[in-house]
Amino acid sequence: MSRRDESEKMPPHKPNIEKNCGQIFSKGPTITREIFEKMQKNKTYIMGYQIQTRQFWVLSGLSVLFLLSLTGVVAMWFTDMFDNAVFANLAIIPDTQSYDMWVKPSPKPLLKVHIFNYTNVPEFESRDDEKLNVKEVGPYVYEAALERVNSKFDGSHVSYQEQRVYKFMPELSIGRKQNDRVIVPNIPLFTAASLNKHSTFLTRVGISSLLNSLNAKPFLSLPAHRFIIGYEDNLYALSKSYMKFQNQKPYEHFGLVSSNAGIRDDVVTINTGASDINKIGLIESFNGEPALNFWSTAECNDISAATDGTLFSPRLVRNKRPIQFYLKEMCRPLPLHFKEEVKILNGKIPAYRYTLPENVFDTPERTPSNQCYCDLDLGECPLQGVFNATPCTFGAPIFMSFPHFHNADPALKEGVTGLNPDSVYETYADLHPTLGFVMAGKNRIQVNVQVAKAFGISQVNMFEDGLMLPVAWIEYVLEDKTLPDDMISIIFQTTFTLRSVELGLKYGCILSTGVTLFCILMILKNKWARRERTSSVRPLQANEEICMSA
């Protein structure tokens, strides 16, 4: 019978699945063990050296870990990679915590107003007293809540307006009441005299007659609250009509802080820090203009290096470099210089204290850079210690100084009695050493009005020309003891948690680099030692074997 016939008679082959699976599972462990044994016996050659495959993979893994650790050392110790990653969270970007804090800051600074009450006006007007006497009353304390409204983003810029709401705090006002009567200079009257000082005689006489018809006097008796927040009388109502005719936008009421109350007309555009965190908060334009137009040089009109005073460049602060903030009431940026390292929050948190230098109100003879703030048309510069803010106050002869004419010309201090110029009234900001935001601080400034004596305006005849009348000194205070819990939490996290993470990464990378390098060297050392022992044993020669056998 042929094989073909036999194959045709044989039943078709059916694989025994159960038997095959049983063989696979029964022999599986043996196969796996054989694979690992072969891996251990397999050899790999690296630069002429023979090494087991398993050791090769261990050495490769350690080498990769070593390179990663070394890269971490370079990144943490010699670059700003970690800082940039942290700073990126400061950028003003919608729907982030930093944006929410920027729009409506939870810390609410206090506005403290110290009014100079004139106590001998009748005696001065009757010539019984040679000089006016002032008595400081206050402080009248208000909580100042800030919100940035009408924000519009354009790339890395954001435009906004400020809205402030002032709430009187009687418990902090040391017994002072909002209805306390104070006698203060009539600033609109002195403004009218100043604006018409160089007018014709007939014009000055007409102004004097108008003031008489309005019963305008050089001094007013007002409730303290109205003088601070804003008041309106017949003279100011007439002044508003005139300013509107001149296409100016006067404030609804006249007061020490009326320009800040409610929503300000000014539109500020700042850098969000999204593309460069060290530009965060820098003013890009003010009311659509990239620079001011109040002063005589481009340098003094430049505001591109200033912020609004709440955020500063982290790199500048960390390196203790000078910074600037823009003060709208003076229409100029003010410098802040690093002074010292301090502790806040009961000595738990380190801070960098920046202060306003005392030469900021110096004459050009002392500080030549202040020359551009002088009136070049008239060739006049203010006396030492005061700043002429007239160009940005609708022509009102307003001058700024340190409280009580501190560090000012003695002639200013002798114009009136009752001042205490020897006290130190420092303006400072305590900044986060790493992130550059304000944690505490005080901004102190005094408002004064200058008398411009004009022949024909009888209301100012009793004064000496150029007499500087102190009005009030104002301070914005952010105290560390009154910070809200969420702000304190942020300060502690950014001070300790971030610092711990940074130190952990820095020294962790060093430790990891050292450990992996040590392991690599030990593996190579053992391999080299084994190779040397193997090479020191040479095979016997034939004659040596015979001799030994004999």
From TrEMBL:
Its main location: membrane. It comes from the Eukaryota. One of its GO terms (molecular function) is scavenger receptor activity. GO terms for cellular component: caveola; membrane. It holds the Pfam family CD36. It comes from Tribolium castaneum. The chain crosses the membrane at residues 56-78, 504-524. It is found in: Cell membrane; Membrane, Caveola. This is Scavenger receptor class B member 1. The keyword Metal-binding does not apply. It is a multi-pass membrane protein. InterPro entries: CD36_fam (IPR002159). Belongs to the CD36 family. The keyword Manganese does not apply. Keywords: Cell membrane, Disulfide bond, Glycoprotein, Membrane, Receptor, Transmembrane, Transmembrane helix.
